[in-house]
Amino acid sequence: MKQWEVVIGIETHVQLSTQSKIFSGSSTAFGAEPNVQANAVDLALPGVLPVLNKGAVECAIRFGLAVEGQVAPKSVFARKNYFYPDLPKGYQISQYELPVVVGGKVAIQLGQGDDLSEKTINLTRAHLEEDAGKSLHEDFHGKSGIDLNRAGTPLLEIVTEPDMRSSAEAVAYAKALHALVRWIGICDGNMQEGSFRCDANVSVRPVGQKEFGTRREIKNLNSFRFMQQAIDYEVQWQIAHIEDGGRVEQATVLFDPDTGETRAMRSKEDAHDYRYFPDPDLLPLIISRDWIERARSALPELPAAKKQRFVTDFGLSAYDATTLTASLEVADFYEATVVVAGKAAAKPCANWVMVDLAARLNKEGMELAHSPVSAVQLGGLVARIADNTISNNIAKKIFDALWNGEGKSADEIIDKQGLKQITDSGAIEALIDEVLAANAAMVAEFRAGKEKAFNALVGQAMKATKGKANPQQVNELLRRKLA
After folding, report:
1. 125-147, pLDDT tens digit by residue?
2. What is the pTM of this model?
3. What is the per-residue DSSP string for 383-436?
4. Among 160, 169, 224, 225, which is most buried by a count of CB atoms within 10 Å?
5. pLDDT of 422 above 70
6. From CA 217, how far away is CA 421, in angstroms rounded?
């Protein structure tokens, strides 16, 4: 049976975090009543002229630097001509032959744990453009309405090379790009509000064939789960269609989450169908070397550099470092925790952030920004574990207390509830003597070779100390007594 290779390229529309639109002063705030954020420029009234938003250009420069692309010293805006009811001018202002960013790369992580691997996805370009409006098809008595609030919203369209070979790689890329644009502060990444939308160009070819197959573009994927489902379905459809003797035609398709299927929307246009030409109302965009360097100096430490520093400075595994640098919020929270707990406790801090805190946030359906336990509080808790003031079991009780607002710090809760760990060997030994005397049957079982009896005796000893004895000391003293 013929083996098939999947080829995927992604185009992503990233809404830039500016207060106003790319060519007008209208607000970009989400959720306003229809058509209240569309001025004369957005409506394309006669005589109006576009004025480029400097903030949008700054966002493009930041992105170009973050992906190690070339920020073009000169780029040109073009008119992309097509007719649609929500496009007031009859054309979209975009960039074609001379985009603002050329090239670049995004590293993606595949697998997990010891099987973690990295792959580089190369970028073709990133260009500035304006968004169109939105057609509304509900509650209009069989008619459609047009909302032009989005018309003119600044976008950065980011285009990859066809480097991905599975839906898993495509999703990993989309997640990495989503994290990056949020990390460098150019997009809020809100997929539900349309701030981050992906189009997937999917084709298949026999393994070993150099020429690409005919691609179909899946439009407007606004969740990672839908992206994976849509690509997987499209791949299976194309393979089955070809094996049945059919021929894949270039087309734009939509994904229906209710059926899990893609369906053709229209035949796919080529560039010449849009009759691109330079926009006569806009001068070429000139970006000086000084402007680029100012933008570079304002960038935060990038994910790859921070990840490497976590490995080098804190001794974390590549997997832990990758997890903790998945977002700037998590990375900053972790570092603030280590500052309080101490560098020697960097690994326990990582465990608490990735496991205990993450699990509790997930259970409560909360974002890290709204965590009831701050980084300072968590660092203080880990510090008390590290200096043997409390055990891990007691720490979990204190974490719950901090989460519920029962104290301002781990130290306060330890003092208030008398949770300080018992480390006095004499006191622990006396308690163990009492436990052994009261549990002669268990002692006999252990000496008969039943290891489970030892664990039961440890449990009795910890119970006698209300969990406050140092578990390691209990184990060592108990084994010595039984020997």
Report:
1. 999 999 999 988 776 677 888 99
2. 0.85
3. HHHHTTSS-HHHHHHHHHHHHTTS-SSHHHHHHHHT-PPB--HHHHHHHHHHHH
4. 160
5. no
6. 62
When computed from its CA atoms, the radius of gyration of the chain, rounded to whole angstroms, is 30
Tokens 């049957």: give the residue.
441
Closest by Cα among 77, 47, 48 to 60: 77
Helix (H, G, I), strand (E, B) or coil at 297: helix
Residue-wise pLDDT tens digits, 225-263: 999 999 999 999 999 999 999 999 999 999 999 999 999
Residue predicted with more confidence, 422 or 163:
163
**Residue 289 DSSP SS3:** helix
Please give the structure tokens belonging to residue 134. Answer: 């939105």
Q: How far apart are alpha carbons 278 and 419 in whole angstroms?
A: 72
Q: 349: left (phi > 0), else alpha (psi -120 to 50), else beta?
A: alpha
Question: CA torsion angle for 439, 444, 447, 448 (degrees, to 10)?
Answer: -140
160 closest CA partner among 286, 299, 7, 2: 7
Q: What is the pLDDT of residues 378-398, one digit of tens each?
A: 999 999 999 888 888 889 999
Q: How far apart are CA 466 and CA 223, in angstroms?
A: 48
| CA count, 13 A, side-chain hemisphere, 296 | 13
Any idea what the Cα angle at residue 211 is, between residues 210 and 215, rounded to 5°? 130
DSSP assignments along 170-224, one per residue: HHHHHHHHHHHHHHTTS----TTTTSEEEEEEEEEEETT--S----EEEEEE-SH
Per-residue pLDDT, 302: 96
Task: Write the single-letter amino acid at 298.
Answer: A
| Banded model confidence at residue 427, pLDDT cuts 50, 70, 90 | low
Report phi then psi at 215, rounded to 5.
-95, 155
